[in-house]
Amino acid sequence: MNNRQRLIDLIADFKLDRRDVAELLRVKPDMVDHWLISGESKSREEMPDMAIELLEYKLGVKRPDEQSQES
Q: Which superfamily does CATH assign the domain made up of 3-63 to?
């Protein structure tokens, strides 16, 4: 699963809006919009791995000890 789909799933599971995601990651809401745009758009940006991992961590989806096991 790519980071865009992971983000979409987290937004749905936790009933977040784009502003919530932006506040949790300390980015501008426009950045979240660019991460969510479909792949056909030229203004789409790939969500960095560290951003999705930080969001999962803050939401309690991933614990710090799970990351060390993945490496």
A: lambda repressor-like DNA-binding domains (1.10.260.40)
